[in-house]
Amino acid sequence: MGGEIPAALQLALRRGFQVHPEAIRALESADPESVARAIREAIRTREREGGRTISGGDVAAALGIAPADEPFENAYETLDDPTGRTASAEGVGGFGALFASRFEKMRALVSGRPEARSIRHAADLAGARPEEGAHACGLVTERRVGAGRSDRLVIEDPTGTLELAVYDDAAREAAASLVNDQFVMVRLGAARDGGLVAREISVPDVSGHSPRTSGVEVHAVLLSDLHVGSRYFDEAAFGRLLEWLNGADAVASRVGYVLVCGDVVDGVGIYPNQDRELVLQTVEEQLARLDELVAQIPERIRVVISPGNHDPGRRALPQPAIPRELAPGLWGRPNVEMVGNPATVLLNGVRVLMFHGQSVDDVVKVAPGLSYDRPAGVMKFLLRARHLCPIYGGGTPLAPESEDMLVVGEAPDIFHAGHVHVVGAEQYRGVLMVNSGTWQGQTPFQAGLGIEPTVGRAIVVNLKTLAPVQRDFA
To answer: Up-side HSE of residue 118: CA atoms within 13 Å toward CB?
Structure first.
């Protein structure tokens, strides 16, 4: 929050009004862009109704915050979760099944487009001149940037491989943004030498999504990357979050959900000499401390916990939930839901995709224009690709499942990720993308790379409006 609140208070004083502390707290919970509008509406309310003090209720009404005593209920459902569904195969056959599943799921995503009727199999196009308007689709196996007027793109479908020349500037730009193993659809043309040309290149993307909202005002607190057990875990900041959740704040009283999107503990043996940076040396101790912290969250709040790459259990994606035997306390709490990574949950009718975000490491290395300090840019890339980990063979391990559970099927209303320790929130085609930062201070490794983590901030989303607000507890 910048100077919006001091400016609002000055406006009220110039108009002859005092501002109650509860009104200030309500302004602090608001989106910065809403502060000036809210104080003006609150001033008009007092001018109309009388009185010289702007109350918390005046500001809350201006912001559309429901009274604390207005009843609401949590309506939670786990829609998609790899826990209990993972059954990895082995070797080439296992990965063959994985990529066959990926292709079929992706093909289904574009099947409703008009141009899908003109898709041809690679085997049918071998040595043939494509008819006008013909298309092909497949997974990218190679992309070569040419020194001259054309690039080369190689895609594969279950029937064979197509090597395509790319001449058009728009198509070359689209090809340059692709990564290996990503699904694409291509409008074909014929080259003079008898080969195939990619006239247009498109990705599945998200289109025409109308976000769903809750019928009543209820808030979700989005967190990630606690790293409990690390000496850099900011337990004091997390304690202030817990105090807020248990307090009388108008927004806190309407929090129905806390979502923790991976790396809830720091783990053991994740990187060399990690033990020197731990205050709790076993995952059991770390998870027990996490359970003690979660126990302080009011029981009326549903807590959803998914794993990340630091958490115990399987490291390869998709990850089942943190094993019950390692976290019996968390599994035994009636208000805690333990889910895998990725998972899709329904919060009062709002569809939330939770993905820790390990694949960001691979994507930023090869996709132009993407970086760790703008996590929403990478999340947008994954939404456009409709896949949470499109690259095979990078630093993110993939399990050879018979079903690809990383395909983004139905578009979410909220896409929640973590991993990069930097807060970001943006809208893309009806999807609210949130990276919820971290509760771990800067580590020596991060300092060496010049990474400045965003520590101790919670993203609070009003599920009735899908408006995100950052609350700083650092």
So the answer is: 13
pLDDT at 346: 98
Q: Which residues of the chain have pLDDT under 70?
A: 1-2, 66-70, 147-148
- List of residues 6+ apart from 378 with CB closer than 8 A: 357, 360, 363, 364, 367, 370, 420
Residue 12 CA to residue 1 CA, distance in Å, equals 18
State residue 127's pLDDT score. 75
Between strands 457-462 and 467-472, the pairing is antiparallel
- Return the beta strands (E) in 86-234 as ranges: 135-144, 151-157, 160-166, 183-190, 196-202, 219-223
Q: Does 412 sit behind a cis peptide bond, omega within 30 degrees of 0 on the bond before it?
A: no
Distance of alpha carbon 178 from alpha carbon 38, whole angstroms: 44
> Would you state the pLDDT for residue 68?
58
Query: Are the beta carbons of 330 and 338 closer than 8 angstroms?
Result: yes
Mark residue 304 as left, alpha or beta (left: phi above 0; alpha: psi -120 to 50; beta: remaining).
beta
pLDDT in tens, 334-369: 999 999 999 999 999 999 999 999 999 999 999 989
Which tens digits make up the pLDDT trace of 288-324?
Answer: 999 999 999 999 999 999 999 999 999 999 999 999 9
76-87+208-472 carries CATH number 3.20.20.70 = no
pTM of the model: 0.87
The domain at 111-202 falls in which architecture?
Beta Barrel (2.40)
Amino acid at position 238, single letter: F
Report how far residue 438's alpha carbon sits from residue 10's, in angstroms, rounded to the nearest whole number: 34
Ranges of each domain in the chain: 4-63, 76-87+208-472, 111-202
Helices (H) and strands (E) in the chain — how many of each?
13, 19
CATH number of the domain at 4-63, please?
1.10.8.60
